[in-house]
Write a structure and sequence with these properties.
The protein is an alpha+beta fold. It folds into 2 domains: about 100 residues, Rieske Iron-sulfur Protein, CATH 2.102.10.10; about 210 residues, Naphthalene 1,2-dioxygenase Alpha Subunit, Chain A, domain 1 (Alpha-Beta Complex). It contains 9 helices and 18 strands. Strands 1-11-10-4-3-2-5 form a 7-stranded antiparallel sheet. The longest helix is centred in the last third of the chain and has 28 residues. It is globular, with a radius of gyration of 23 Å. The C terminus is likely disordered.
């Protein structure tokens, strides 16, 4: 792993000095959020990739994109090339996407293959990352094939788990057990049969804003009355609950008085849904950048992919229950829900990008926070600060 530059070392020191002044630990009305440099500084962005994204469980991709044995999907996690693959035993695995010989990237696009083959010298690996052959390794026509002493040249595997349709990878190998991380979801998700869900479609958005602003905006409902006229009419501010947090899980929710076609009211519901869930919507964040919302008839995944200190890409993936995901009779109902999600996100984008521009102002540096709505933002900031303070990068 590369050492931090002198500039990155200094930005880490500056960041910790700013956040350990009490702003994150004082009562929310007296404290504030993250300092501006965390949203604007290229050196901080690189530091964040090597700490926050390297040492936590990070969403890597959708399992439905790896349906067949041999399906391969290259992704980038914590700034590093990673490849996901469906192996012969039915498991999805993750490997560093680099040949063990000269480091050439093995997979550059979605594909299906019986093995990994390096384009540089044709070294090959099984779908479980085991070295198969090294042509001409000992000289012309002196091949090294299936040698038992070659495990040093196997692909480097990464911790990888699949939870429902969602794949998570931990680059460092140091994250807590995945089940322990998501345990705060468990009680709130009882009664929802995720096996009844079918993937429908995705929406993609490019934002001129830091990924953290997209996540913060997703979890705080305070802006709804000002930014989302339809959504505020669906559930008013007086009916909205304050966000809460437990470990690396942030959550919020509300009860709604009646359903609406734009929120899926014309689609099939989860089977045998408990009465308490039949007029309920909840949404969650798993730190750092994976979120989802759940309603009686759908689950909607939200991911903010970092692209730079002032840019990110949002993916919204929509899942519906049973025939609601694909049947022609529900096509108009699905289209209405998707259009609603598109409209809501378009309403958010302008505000999020304006917050990004405001992070360049000397007149703002962390904000004056609402004691009712914003404790969750302070907690998110603490998670980020703790991850950076605890890192063990060589030379830091």
């Amino acid at each position: 792993m590369p050492r931090l530059s002198a500039d990155q070392q200094q930005v880490k020191v500056d960041f910790l000095r700013q956040v350990r002044d009490g702003r994150l630990d004082r009562p929310t009305a007296e404290g504030s959020g993250l300092p501006n440099l965390t949203y604007t500084c290229p050196d901080f962005y690189r530091l964040e990739q090597q700490t926050v994204f390297r040492n936590n469980w990070v969403f890597a991709g959708f399992a439905h994109r790896l349906a067949r044995v041999g399906d391969m999907l290259p992704v980038e996690i914590a700034g590093q090339p990673v490849v996901l693959v469906k192996s012969e035993d039915g498991f999805i695995r993750a490997f560093h996407n680099a040949c063990r010989h000269r480091g050439a990237q093995l997979v550059t696009g979605c594909r299906n293959s019986k093995k990994f083959v390096c384009p540089n010298h044709s070294w090959s690996y099984s779908l479980q990352g085991k070295l198969i052959a090294r042509p001409h390794f000992h000289g012309g026509e002196q091949h090294d094939i299936n040698k038992s002493d070659c495990h040093r040249a196997d692909l480097v595997a990464l911790r990888c788990v699949t939870w429902h349709d969602w794949i998570f990878v931990n680059i460092s190998g140091d994250a807590d057990d995945f089940d322990a991380c998501i345990e705060p979801f468990s009680a709130q998700l009882e009664g929802y049969d995720f096996g009844a869900l079918g993937f429908c479609d995705t929406l993609e958005f490019d934002l001129a804003a830091n990924w953290k602003l997209a996540i913060e905006n997703f979890i705080e409902p305070y802006h709804v009355f000002s930014c989302h006229p339809w959504l505020n009419g669906f559930v008013g501010m007086e009916e909205r609950e304050a966000p809460v947090f437990d470990g690396k899980v942030l959550s919020c929710g509300y009860d709604f008085k009646q359903s609406d076609p734009a929120r899926g009211g014309a689609l099939p519901w989860f089977p045998a849904l408990p009465a308490a869930k039949q007029n309920r919507g909840d949404w969650f964040i798993l730190f750092p950048n994976f979120g989802f919302e759940i309603f009686p008839d759908q689950v909607d995944v939200f991911v903010a992919w970092p692209r730079g200190p002032d840019s990110c890409r949002e993916t919204i993936a929509l899942y519906f229950v049973g025939d609601g995901a694909t049947a022609a009779e529900y096509s108009e109902a699905r289209a209405l829900v998707m259009q609603n999600w598109n409209n809501l996100n378009q309403e958010d984008i302008g505000v999020v990008e304006r917050m990004q521009r405001g992070r360049n102002s000397d007149g703002f540096d962390g904000g004056v926070l609402s004691p009712y709505w914003d404790p969750v933002l302070q907690h998110f900031a603490r998670l980020l600060a703790d991850a950076i303070e605890a890192e063990t990068i060589p030379g830091s």
